[in-house]
Write a structure and sequence with these properties.
The complex is a heterodimer of chains A (320) and B (253). With 320 residues, chain A is mostly helical. Chain A has helices at 3-18, 20-23, 26-51, 59-75, 80-102, 107-127, 129-132, 147-174, 176-186, 188-193, 198-224, 229-232, 235-248, 255-273, 278-292, 302-314, and strands spanning 138-139, 226-227. Chain A has one domain (3-314). Chain A is built from 16 helices and two strands. The chains are: A mainly alpha (320), B alpha/beta (253).
C-alpha cells in the first residue's frame, strides 16, 4: 500500500472517531474516546518499545502518575489544561531521571525493572495517604455539562493528544533520533561504534514514551472525576499497550494506530458476544497473532495475499 | 618522520587475574600503515577495544592528537575519528547497505541531516564498489560484501585512524586482492591504518611497520623485513619454517 494512501486512511479513521457523536449513541462515543486514548498510549510506547526495541512495561506507571500529577494541582486551584501540561512535564522529568538509571540494563533485565516500577509507584501513591488520599482515592473537579457534552469534550481532548503524539512520531521517524534509535534496536554495540550516544538516545526515547502517557492520565482523571491507585496503576494496561503495538507493527508510524484499534474492536466484539469466555478468546487471539504475525498487521503484504488467494481460487487443486 | 597521532603509554588491561594487555607503549604516526600481529589470544583485539573505549584501560594513558582519551566511550572515539571494523561483522541487519553506511556518516561523520548522510554514504559506496548493492539488506550480502560494508561504514565516519580487525579472514584470494587495493587507496587519502592480520602475505605487502604482541606484551616492533628475522617473533608466532622460506625467497630476488 503506498504511503500516501495509508495517511489518507488514517485521516479517515480520525474523522470517523471524531464524528461519532453525530451518528452514534453515547456508548459508541465512549468506545471512541477509549480508542483515541489507547492509541495515544500505544504510540507513546512505540518510541521506546518499537523504535529503540526496549521492552518497556512502565506505561501504567506513567499513566497513573499522570492521573495524580494532573489531579493534585487542580484540587489546589490550578486550571485544568495547565494541570495537564504540568502532569506532562512532571512525568517526562520523572522518566528522564529514572531512565538514566534503568536504561543501563538491557533486554529482560530492563523489562523486569520497568515492570517493577508500576508496582513501586502504586505503593508509594497508596501509602502517601495525606497527599493522595491513599486507597480512598481522590475526587477531581468535574467538567461542567451533561454526560454527552462531557463525552464530546473528552473525545476532542483524547483525539488531540493522539494527533500530537502521532505528529511527534512522524518527526522522530524522519530525524537523526529515529535513525539512531533504529540502529540501537538492530545492534546496540554497532550503534555505539558508529558514534551514537546510546544512553542519551535511549533516555530521550523513554522520556518521549512517558510524557504523553502523563498527559493522557491527567485527561483521564478529569474525564472520570475520580481516581484511585488500583484504577490508575493497572497491570492489565501495562501489558495491553505493548500487545497493541506489536499487533499493529512495532517501530512503524501507523502500526500503533492499527494495533490499538484492532485490539479494542476485537475486545469489544468478544465482550459483547461471549460474555463468559471473552478473555480466554482474546488470549488465544493474542497468542496466535504474535506467533504467526511477528511483524504485526502492517508488515503483511496484502497485495501478495490477495493475488495468492485469487490464484488459488481460480486453479482449484493446483497448489500442493 | 611525520608526527605521532596516537600514543599509548604503558597501557594495560586485566580481566580479573588475566592480563590481556600488559604495559604496551607504542606510537602511531600520521598516514602510516601498521600491522599488529601475534598468535591467537595475544591481546590484539583487546588492544583495539581499549583504544576505542569498549574496555576501559586498567592502567596507562592513551593520547590521540595530543588529547588524553584514556577514559573515552566508544561513541566518543567514533566521533573523534577513531573508527574500527569488527572481526565478526556487525551490520544493522534489517537496514539496507546504504542505510548502514549512512549511519556511520550521520553519527560518526557529523553530518547535520539524514539526507546529507545518505549522500555522503553514496560516495563511500562508490569508493568501495558497493553501489550496485545499495538497496539490498546488509544481511543478504556475502561475507566479503559484508566486510566491505563495514569498511564503507567506517570510512563514512571520516576517520583519522582506521583499525581493521582481520578484514581478510574468511575471504578467498581474489577477494583479498580486492581488499588490499582498497586499503591502499584508503591510506592514500592520508588515513592512518592499524591492521590486525594473520596472513603474512598481506602484512608484508601492506605494512610499513609491524607490532608483535605475545601474551599481551609487545615483544617486537620494526620494519617487516626485520620482524621476520627476529628470533623472538619466530619462536612466538612465525615458526622456523616460515622464516627460512621467507629468507630464501627474499635472497632469490
Amino acid at each position: 500500500m503506498p504511503q500516501s494512501l495509508r495517511y489518507v486512511l488514517f485521516a479517515a479513521w480520525v474523522l470517523a472517531l471524531a464524528s461519532t457523536p453525530l451518528w452514534a449513541e453515547n456508548y459508541v462515543v465512549r468506545l471512541a474516546i477509549v480508542i483515541a486514548m489507547y492509541t495515544a498510549l500505544t504510540l507513546s510506547w512505540n518510541f521506546i518499545g518499537g523504535f529503540a526495541g526496549y521492552p518497556s512495561f512502565s506505561t501504567a506507571a506513567f499513566f497513573g502518575l499522570g492521573c495524580y500529577a494532573g489531579a493534585l494541582p487542580q484540587n489546589a486551584g490550578v486550571p485544568m489544561v495547565l494541570a495537564w501540561a504540568l502532569a506532562t512535564l512532571f512525568v517526562g522529568m520523572f522518566a528522564a531521571l529514572l531512565g538514566i538509571i534503568i536504561l543501563r540494563l538491557r533486554g529482560h533485565y530492563f523489562a523486569i525493572a520497568s515492570f517493577a516500577l508500576v508496582e513501586v509507584v502504586r505503593l508509594v501513591i497508596s501509602s502517601w495517604g495525606n497527599l493522595t488520599g491513599g486507597g480512598d482515592g481522590l475526587n477531581v473537579p468535574l467538567v461542567s455539562g451533561g454526560p454527552s457534552a462531557v463525552a464530546q469534550t473528552f473525545l476532542g481532548v483524547m483525539i488531540a493528544i493522539m494527533l500530537i503524539v502521532f505528529a511527534v512520531t512522524i518527526l522522530v521517524d524522519r530525524s537523526r533520533l529515529g535513525f539512531g534509535l533504529s540502529c540501537i534496536q538492530q545492534n546496540e554495540d554497532a550503534a555505539d561504534m558508529v558514534g551514537v550516544d546510546t544512553t542519551r538516545y535511549k533516555v530521550y526515547a523513554y522520556t518521549l514514551s512517558a510524557m504523553f502517557c502523563g498527559t493522557v492520565g491527567a485527561a483521564y482523571a478529569s474525564w472520570t472525576g475520580y481516581i484511585d491507585p488500583s484504577d490508575s496503576f493497572s497491570i492489565i494496561m501495562t501489558v495491553k499497550v505493548p500487545v497493541m503495538c506489536l499487533l499493529g507493527g512495532a517501530g512503524t508510524v501507523l502500526g500503533p494506530v492499527v494495533g490499538a484499534a484492532a485490539f479494542l474492536l476485537l475486545e469489544e466484539f468478544f465482550w459483547a458476544n461471549f460474555l463468559e469466555y471473552n478473555r480466554a478468546i482474546l488470549g488465544v487471539i493474542i497468542v496466535v497473532l504474535i506467533f504467526f504475525l511477528p511483524g504485526g498487521l502492517l508488515r503483511i503484504s496484502y497485495s501478495d495475499l490477495l493475488s495468492r488467494t485469487v490464484r488459488r481460487s481460480t486453479q482449484p487443486g493446483a497448489t500442493p | 618522520m611525520s608526527a605521532s597521532i596516537l600514543e599509548l603509554e604503558n597501557v594495560s588491561k586485566h580481566f580479573g587475574g588475566i592480563r590481556a594487555v600488559s604495559s604496551v607503549s607504542v606510537d602511531l604516526r600520521e598516514g602510516e600503515i601498521v600491522a599488529l600481529i601475534g598468535p591467537n589470544g595475544a591481546g590484539k583485539t583487546t588492544l583495539v577495544n581499549v583504544i576505542t573505549g569498549v574496555h576501559p584501560a586498567s592502567a596507562g594513558r592513551i593520547r590521540f592528537l595530543g588529547a588524553d582519551v584514556t577514559r573515552q566511550r566508544p561513541f566518543q572515539a567514533a566521533r573523534r575519528g577513531l573508527a574500527r571494523t569488527f572481526q565478526i561483522v556487525q551490520p544493522f541487519p534489517r537496514m539496507s547497505v546504504l542505510e548502514n553506511v549512512a549511519a556511520g556518516a550521520l553519527f560518526g561523520g557529523a553530518h547535520a541531516s539524514v539526507s546529507d548522510a545518505m549522500e555522503a554514504a553514496r560516495e563511500q559506496l562508490d569508493f568501495t564498489g558497493l553501489t550496485a548493492f545499495a538497496d539490498r539488506a546488509a544481511s543478504a550480502l556475502t561475507l566479503a560484501g559484508r566486510k566491505r560494508v563495514e569498511l564503507a561504514k567506517s570510512l563514512a565516519m571520516k576517520p583519522k585512524i582506521l583499525m581493521l580487525d582481520e578484514v581478510n579472514a574468511g575471504l578467498n584470494s581474489s577477494e583479498i586482492d580486492g581488499a588490499l587495493t582498497l586499503i591502499r587507496r584508503v591510506s592514500e587519502r592520508g588515513v592512518t591504518i592499524l591492521i590486525i592480520e594473520h596472513l603474512m602475505k598481506v602484512v608484508l605487502s601492506l605494512a610499513q611497520r609491524v607490532l608483535v604482541l605475545h601474551h599481551g606484551e609487545l615483544i617486537a616492533e620494526g620494519k617487516p623485513s626485520d620482524i621476520v628475522d627476529d628470533p623472538r617473533v619466530i619462536e612466538a608466532y612465525l615458526g622456523e619454517k616460515f622464516a627460512r622460506r621467507f629468507k630464501e625467497t627474499a635472497s632469490h630476488g
